[in-house]
Every structure is written in structure tokens, then in C-alpha cells.
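Quick sanity check, DNA polymerase IV:
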Amino acid sequence: MRSQASVLHLDLDAFFAAVEQRDKPSLRGKPVVVGGVGGRGVVATASYEARVHGVRSAMSTREARSRCPHAAFLSGRFHAYREASGVVMGLLREVSPLVEPLSLDEAFVDLEQAGLPDLEVATVTDFAQDLRRRVHEATDGLTASVGVATSKLLAKIASDLDKPDGLVVVAPGTEQELLRPMRATIIPGVGPATAERLRRAGITTVADLEEAGLDELVRLLGRAHGGGLHLLSRARDDRPVVAEREAKSVSVEGTYDTDLSDLRLIEGLLARQAGEVATRLRAAGLSGRTVTIKVRFHDFTTLSRSTTLASPTDHGPTVARSARALLAELVAGPDTGPQVRAGVRLLGVGVSGLADWVQEDLFADAEDDGAEEEDEELPEPPRARHLGAWAPGMDVVHAELGRGWVWGAGRGVVTVRFETRETPAGPVRSFPDDDPALRAWTPPVPEEPAQDPLSGPA
């Protein structure tokens, strides 16, 4: 913990939903829910207008619809989110060379490197207020909540205390006074299972954690976990702001609207995902040794299996071969085999243990040499949630009417509202879903990629 409040945490408010409201004038001030829009969808972000109806992140879309049926349910536009995030992260890097992004919508900033005249509370407060104003202007209206404190722990907690569009500066020496009344779950590492174990021991607040002492927490949770909570409950957090966070893995996964039970189809989908992972690895100049598959069954049980290769690879067929072998291991299991055959709702392939060099796979099959596997003729899988032809919220352009976004689609018809960030709320028109005048719109590709190839969604 530092002696001065010099760690800043910035969190963009209801980020995905706020970008949609910014870019779609007809949705401003109205409830918006971004996430999976199918029967098995999950809420990624809800606007504050939707939150007053009880809609929350990680809630099923089905429940969100029951709580707020009049909300706009949108599938998400990651190109728009990455663009807005890039603007904000670029602004943060202008004020300090030490910026640690945690996700598209939040980051830590080390104010010791920001060139401020001093780090007194009044100075950092004025700086943070100005930073919030600059973010609002640079992003055409997005708001950010900011916390400033003597550590990462306190800065992140502080940024959540006055949402949306708020600022909280925790003065040095007041950290424990702030923490003590809070629920123990405010401390990183106190998830549902840990919270229940602590509750059974009569520990529900940070003050209770502090009073319990090191020996009791170690007895309840083990030396590493208990020791960590002992320090954090006393606001002791010396973690530095780290400008570059190395990618630890590259992965691809998909969720399907209908359970998969055809083993040949499952195997083929894993092979395709393995090819996508390998393509990402090569684009980043990386390779990896550990191949992992992730399988979520019809009952939401999720399992993963991993294998480690003799040397790093970026070779699609090699990754695919390992993924198929791991699937075969699951299918052969007396417990997992029946689960696979009963239905799979999510599949994923990842590679970790990354390196910046590749060694030839001497055990590759001869027919694999020098080329990616060609896709087999597989049955068409049930369409993943995010692969709809006309997904609600997606950007489109009409040959005569210009740009707009998909209001809804179904039964051979797609309905579009024609408006953009720069226009007033526009008219709504419907078209046959195969109308040649209507197509998806994507922003122009910059000549120089603006971000790390690994930073997009998996």
C-alpha cells in the first residue's frame, strides 16, 4: 500500500449498453440489454434503465426478458466496443505510461508516472475529474466512474461506490474505515463457496475478517487463501500497476442453441476451432504447448481436459489432433461418455504455455505436412447464438436508405431502423431477409492494425 493516493481505476459505465445507446438515438434513455438473445443467452451488460427492473449481468436472457420485456435485446457489436475502448485506453496512455487494462472497459493508471505537481488528495481529485470529462468528450458521451486510492484493491472498490459517472478518492489513512462495514465478498477471492464457509464461522463483513486473525483464516481456508484475505482485509495490497499483461492463452469457443449429440459433428467442430486458434497464434507470432478442450453438457456441467505437447506448435492439424484425442478420452469415460452422448451445449479449444518460437512436430502425420486440414463435409451444426444472419442490433446498410441497425428478424423478414450516432432517431422499415439491397455494414479496416491480434474476443 502506498503512502499517497496514486492508483486510479477507471470503469466505463454499463459499457456495451452505453455504446449501443450512443450509436442508436432511438434507444437513449431506454432499457437496453446486450448479450445472447437466444433461449440460452446470458446478459453481458444491462443499461441502468434496465437495471431498475432487476436485470443484471450474467442473468439468463430468458429471466431478463421476463423482468423487463420492453427492453431492447441486442446481440452486441464488438467492433464498436473495441473502437470505443481504444479511444479511452489511448487517452489513459497519454496521461501516464503505466496503464494496466483489465478488460475493454476498465483499467488501472499509475498516477506516480502522470507528471502531476504532487499527489495530494486535492490534486488527484482535480486530475480525475478532468480525466472523466476528457473521456466523455473523446467518446461522444460515454461516462466513466473513477476511484483513486493507495492500492489497486481500494481504487477498484472506490470506482464502484458512486456509479454511474462518479468519483471517489480514498484519502490515505482512511482505507480500513471504508472497508470494515462492507460485506466480506467485496474482497477478491471471496466467492460464493468461500463466503458460505466464512458465514458458517460467523464472518460476514470485512471487520469480521480483520477480527478473525491470521490463524483462524488459515484454519478455515488454508495458508495461501487465508493469508491473502488476512492482508487484504487490512487494506494491505502492494501489487504494482503493470503496463503490459502477457496473453496466457488463445482460445475459441461456441455455444449452440440445440444440444449436440452427434459425435462426428462434435469432433469436426473441435477441429475447426483448433484451426481458428492456430490461425490466431500465427498472426501473433506465438505458439503453445498445452492444448485444452472445454465441454459444457446439457445439464450445465462443464469439464475441461488438457494435454501438453513435447514442444510449442502453431500447427492447426496438431492442435486438432490433440483436441480430438481429448474428446475421445471424455467419450471413453464411464461417467463422461454418457454425458457427451446426452448432449453438449458448448465447445471450446484453447492453447496455453505460449512461446515466441515453434519447433517442427516430428510426429505429425504425413498428410498434415505443410497445410491446414481441409474441412470435412459435416452436418450443419445448430447455429450458435452469435452467428445469426440478421442479429438484433447489428449494423446494416441499404443501397438507397443508407445505414441503420437490425430491429428484429424472423419468418423471412428483417426490420431495420435507419439511424446512426450522428443522426436523429430514424424511420423503421421491413424487407425480405434476402433483399439484395440490404447487407451487413462493417467499419473500414485500418491500414495498420490498431491492436494486438490476441486482444479480440475468443
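Posting the structure with no commentary besides this: Residues 359-376, 380-388, 448-458 have pLDDT under 50 and may be disordered.
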